[in-house]
């Protein structure tokens, strides 16, 4: 008698009904000047600019509540630390309060828009988002990374891509040990450990690639910002190293902007030449076809799956998702157990043929 086949598995998938809470990187510090920049994040439009007086980056809601113009639209400009609406020249301060209407004797008391918390750290700019309206949490502050400021490194170079999927899909990569061969070209994974502690989640990985042996360390600080270090011991005996960023900012509940950043040792002869250094980094990014952007082809066509069938060789995906879920619920609903340090070692060697 033939053994009955199991019923086909039914994939279940649902999207979060709110945006995560945390700091989200929106670019490098040198990208923001006194020219207004339009940002389409969190289901709305924002305007970002560097104040002429303070020298600090400010972010406001972009839609002017007078007649709906976008404060980052054509014709907008900065005056001091205020942004001028291109439609009727209403002036909005960095605190979101209208401080001048050129043709009015009195400014309406309700003339205020949202001013978003901003952080500049590690030569990058971050915006704080909390769906419950809470102020930035000190324990989630992005820490200063001393290596970023060491001499001998190029500036950050950031590439962006729009992804039509929920940003949680990107986070899964931290526990997805088995995708590094098919997607990124690894030949073998010899160490794979995930560490969860509060708002931090770290991936430690050693392995072998066509370039030689590698050591990798990547840490998420909250739901949107991950900094990564990779060192290759090349077959030639030389050592290659770089720092990278893997980041996301939700644009809607069904899409996000993917930001990947790169910082390499300064090439000989380009000392003090920022333009040459950025060009060097761009050339290295273009040459790496199996890098972080290789995932885009997968994200484009995959489905959200809440009940994946996992095998004994997979990484701790369930634990990772439990960690990430803390950013999708109100602060008072975050389990205290998530503050404890937990180590998930999945270092059984995988050899990719």
Which features does this protein show?
4 helices, 353 residues, mainly beta, Naphthalene 1,2-dioxygenase Alpha Subunit, Chain A, domain 1, single chain, Rieske Iron-sulfur Protein
Descriptive account of the structure:
The chain is mainly beta and about 350 residues long. It has 2 domains: about 110 residues, 3-layer Sandwich (Rieske Iron-sulfur Protein), CATH 2.102.10.10; about 200 residues, Alpha-Beta Complex (Naphthalene 1,2-dioxygenase Alpha Subunit, Chain A, domain 1), CATH 3.90.380. The protein has 4 helices and 20 strands. The strands form 4 sheets. Strands 12, 13, 14, 15, 16, 17, 18, 19 and 20 form a 9-stranded antiparallel beta sheet that branches. A 4-stranded antiparallel beta sheet has the order 2-3-4-9, with no helix packed on it. A 4-stranded antiparallel beta sheet has the order 5-6-7-8, with no helix packed on it. The chain starts with about 20 loop residues before the first strand and ends with a strand. The mean pLDDT is about 95.
